[in-house]
Amino acid sequence: MRFECQPRCIRCCTRKGVVYVTAEDIARIARNLGLSGAEFRRRHICCKPPLLRLRVGRNKLCPFLFSDGCSIHQVKPLQCSSFPFWPELLASASERRKTAKFCPGMNRGKLVDLDSARAIASQVRRAFKQQYEDSGL
After folding, report:
1. Which of 88, 95, 96 lies closest to 120 in space, CA to CA?
2. What was the pLDDT predicted at 7?
3. Closest-CA residue to 50 (of 20, 16, 26, 79)
4. CB environment 21-44: b (16+ within 10 A), e (fewer)
5. Which residues are CB-neighbours of 75 under 8 A, at least 6 positions away?
6. How high is the pLDDT of residue 35?
7. Helix runs in the chain, H state only
8. pTM (predicted TM-score)
9. 11 and 98 Cβ atoms separated by less than 8 Å
10. Which of 6, 23, 27, 121 is the most buried (most CB within 10 A)?
11. ∠ CA 122-128-130, rounded to 5°
């Protein structure tokens, strides 16, 4: 599989869905924003463990996404940084083809080592265990 994120592209960020976060994501992003973990949770997190997610506004987009890109790009959540090496994409050629229709980085750039892609997918599966157990992936 080839993948290279394209400069200033935010297409994956504008797709329908939610952004799940880990406790590590919360701590890292909060530090970057100069907030305590508790304050970050109060402002930006909804739901309860184990499936924590970013609270979205009326526009249904990530609160850290702006027209010029992600304001927390350097510390973005695992769900974001691991794209497109999610278990559901590695498991299905048809899902990869659907993703390639909106993601200009798919099928471009260097060939990604399959072991590296699987390691990233395993990390995602472990981080969001309940979600993946429920889906059967």
Report:
1. 88
2. 87
3. 20
4. bbeebbebbbeebebeeeebbeeb
5. 28, 29, 31, 32
6. 98
7. 23-33, 37-44, 78-81, 87-90, 93-102, 114-127, 129-135
8. 0.90
9. no
10. 121
11. 115
Using a 10 angstrom Cβ sphere, with 0-12 exposed, 13-18 middle and 19 or more buried, the burial of residue 51 is: middle
CA distance 96 to 116: 17
Q: Could you tell me which of 121, 123, 50 has the C-alpha nearest to residue 86?
A: 121
Token pair for 121: 């997918």
Q: What is the pLDDT of residues 90-120, one digit of tens each?
A: 999 999 999 999 999 999 999 999 999 999 9
Distance CA 45, CA 20 (A): 9
Q: How confident is the model at residue 137 (pLDDT cuts 50, 70, 90)?
A: low
Contact present, 25 and 78 (Cβ < 8 Å): yes
Q: Which of 21-30, 40-49, 88-97 has the lowest mean pLDDT?
A: 40-49
